[in-house]
Structures are given as structure tokens and as C-alpha cells.
Write a structure and sequence with these properties.
Number of domains: 2
Helix content: 40-55%
Order of helices and strands: HHEEH
Strand order of the largest sheet: 1-2
Strand content: 5-15%
Shape: elongated
Length: about 100
Amino acid sequence: MFSNYFKTALRNLWKNKGFSAINIVGLAIGLSTCLLILIFVMDETGYDKYNENADRIYRLDGDIKFGGIISFWQLRRRRRAPRCCGIFPRSRRKRVFGCTGG
């Protein structure tokens, strides 16, 4: 039974080569785009998941509008960390980190 379906599909592919090529290329592009989006989402949602206390890690982000341009950046100032510990009383420790370039 399966061999009959396979033979019919091959006959239709050879009879309609143009439409078959368009459909196969479209399917390949759609699947590859879906996989790339899936990989991106998994990478973004897996931030700091390696840590055993990942549910207790928070990151402060900020944005500033200057001259019509909006910039997004991480808040890395050491003086902001004590204020955050005061706002969030359950916080035990604070760590400030960041990179200086790149």
C-alpha cells in the first residue's frame, strides 16, 4: 500500500516539476526559519539557567532617549545595587558585573 502512494507521489512530482520545486523550496525555507527562531528563543530563555538558583537571579535593564534615539543597556552602577537591595528586602546579596567594551 505504501509503495503505491510513493509511486503516485513520484509521478506527480515528475509531471509538475515547476510547482513541485516551488513547494519543496518553500517547505525547506519555512522549516529552516522555524528552527532558527526556535534556537533563538531557547537561547534567550536559557539565560542563567546553568545556576542552581536561577529563579533568584534578576538583571536590571534600562533605556534612555536622547535626541530621538533610544538606547537600551544594562544597569551596572555600583551605587544602584544598595538601593535595589533596599527596595527588594528579600534580596540577600548583590553582585555588580559588566563588560567594558565590545
